[in-house]
Amino acid sequence: MSLETDYIVIGSGVAGLRASIELARTGARVTVLTKDKANESNTEYAQGGVAVVLSDDDNAELHEEDTLIAGAGLCDTKAVETLVADGTKYIKQLIEWGIEFDREGGKLAFTQEAAHSRRRILHAHGDSTGKEIVRALIARARQEKQIVLMPFANTESLIVADGRCVGVRFLDPILRAPREIFARAVILCTGGAGQLYLHTTNPPVATGDGMAMAYFAGAEMADMEFVQFHPTALNIENAPRFLLSEAMRGEGGILRNKLGERFMGNYDERLELAPRDIVSRSIVAEMRKTGTRNVFLDMTDLSEDFLRERFPKIYETCKFYDLNIAADLLPVSPASHYCMGGVRTDLDGRTTVAGLYAAGEVSCTGVHGANRLASNSLLEGLVFGARSGAAAIADNYELRMTNDESGNPKSEIQNPKSDGISTAVKKRVKRVMWERVGILRDKDSLKRALKEFEQIEKSNLGTSSRNFVTLAKLIATSALWREESRGGHFRTDFPERNDVNFHKHSIQKIDEKISASEKINFYMKKS
Ligand code: FAD
Ligand code: SIN
Question: What are 156-171's pLDDT values in tens digits?
């Protein structure tokens, strides 16, 4: 039997929770479908903090400028202005709702991260900012009786009728069967796709499902080639790549090669606080030069008391691996971390499919351009989560229950607690993405990757597996199209930035060839 509600939100990270609260404030019924436990998301693991203009020596122009510089010419300036202006408003609201950011002498404490011209990063419990944001938002959402949170509800496809998104198909965790739910509008907040890569800082839920679902529903995808690799993931054999926050370098951490030499000076005058893409590539170059699989993060100039208090989660996790962050050199290497590209939206989360909105890492609002400034993504989820909720209410679509016309195959139930992607497919795609569509790419590697993905597609794939491979293809296709290097996208065969031919966004749409956006500021009118 089909279900109905007023609004469906898919995902319960910062964007999904904030969107749900906005929707519920009007009295609407909101159903939040989420793949795992309510608090399992990229948001939950965010460490460094959230960037916001609140300190006395900061202002909106400076935060905008830092964001635009990091974005390497591809930011949508209106989106950046919106992020910074609304960001301050929504962070103040979070504080009113009871979030506990760290303070010094009663005043908010700000830390430094790469490519920020001011100390403007708020953090919570030292290095558990995301966990505190999720705690505060779930507590706030629980006050709204109309929000129904459905955990372990893996969504596989969107239902589209007459060009409008009217519902979704998901795997019902209680019935252990595919089910449809219809609503006036659907807000995609499914987060990023770090799990496409062999080495990632992202938790297992981050398989990019929402991007693929939107693509199959006919939505435009923008800038998929821009993937951010975080420079300093803890590299312990056979262990997940636990993040060692950029804030550690912000507090004075130094990168050293296996000979103990500080090497960042050979690559960039900003040293360890150069933008992430530069630090990641410098680490790769250094690893190649010295024939190693990692470099080292050195925090030994800082006292153990300070480090234990400032980075308690990192301190404990490293201890678990027999590392004392105050005394030992910490083995690190880059890992996939964040998707700048995604479902193309306007400033209010509207995608190019009526009734479908997207917010947070799944979306491409134009805020990040070719490279995201550190700690801007929690802010983006908060701002555009709220804005997309408000837009969905304002657009006021009728509820319509109808048959699926999107041509999506029916979902097939596997283990409803898993993400439904076949283990063999996942393993193969992750390796190909890491080896051929990774930090350094070229025409040959990308063509070979695409060939492999086409081969995988020939096997009889379930919906989730098909979504996963499709997303890998979208990234490889746009990486092949962009014959230049910019931000998170580095082509060894085109190492220079080329503003003449590529000062534009890549756009992909089902059944159409990849194309370039007409303008850089690409927000749209209501569809
Ligand atoms: P997420 O928080 O990832 O939430 C996505 C939700 O969608 C989850 O609930 C997931 O279960 C659900 N979902 C996914 N697929 C499906 C499906 N098919 N069906 C149903 N539900 C689904 N950013 C910062 O600004 N500051 C930081 O300090 C910072 N640190 C980070 C540290 C780590 C280790 C990581 C991984 C990321 C960090 N980031 C940081 C990035 C930031 O955390 C994310 O970009 C941001 O939290 C994304 O929020 P979101 O709401 O868009 O998605
Ligand atoms: C970190 O703490 O280094 C992650 C910050 C981010 O991804 O913005």
Answer: 999 999 999 999 999 9
Residue 418 is predicted with a pLDDT of 54
DSSP 8-state class, residue 368? S
Say whether 71 sits in a helix, a strand or coil: coil
Q: Quick check: 412 and 463 in contact, CB under 8 A?
A: yes
Position 403 scores a pLDDT of: 65
Mention every residue, 6+ apart, whose C-beta is less than 8 A from residue 327: 300, 304
* Percentage with pLDDT > 90 across the chain: 91
Rounded Cα–Cα distance for residues 264 and 296 (Å): 12
Give CA–CA dist 406/392, Å, rounded. 21
For a ligand 2 pocket test, name from 43, 44, 113, 330 the mutation site with the most ligand atoms within 8 angstroms of its C-beta: 113
Cα angle for residues 461, 511, 188 (degrees, 5° grid): 70
DSSP, collapsed to helix, strand or coil, labels residue 108 as strand
CATH of domain 231-335: 3.90.700.10
pLDDT computed for residue 160 by the predictor: 97
The residues with which 343 forms a beta bridge, in sequence order, are 221, 363
Cα(224)–Cα(471) distance, integer angstroms: 9
Residues in the chain, pLDDT under 50: 407, 409-417, 524-527
Task: Using DSSP, state whether 52 is helix, strand or coil.
Answer: coil
User: What DSSP character marks residue 491?
Assistant: B
Of the candidates 214, 78, 19, the one whose C-alpha atom is nearest the C-alpha of residue 523 is 78
Closest ligand to 14 CA? 1
Pairing relationship of beta strands 506-508 and 356-358 according to DSSP bridges:
unpaired
pLDDT in tens, 19-45: 999 999 999 999 999 999 999 999 999
Taking the C-alpha atoms of residue 200 and residue 193, their distance in angstroms, rounded to an integer, is 9
Instruction: Of 463, 192, 502, give the one whose Cα is nearest residue 338.
Output: 192
**What residues does ligand 1 touch, defined as CB less than 6 Å away?**
10-16, 33-36, 40-43, 45-50, 129-130, 153-155, 189-192, 201-202, 205-206, 209-210, 243, 338, 360-362, 375-378, 381
Can you tell me the distance from the alpha carbon of 195 to that of 200, in angstroms, rounded to the nearest whole number? 6
Q: Which three-class secondary structure state does DSSP give residue 104?
A: strand
Please state the domain extents for the chain: 231-335
What is the per-residue pLDDT for 114?
A: 87
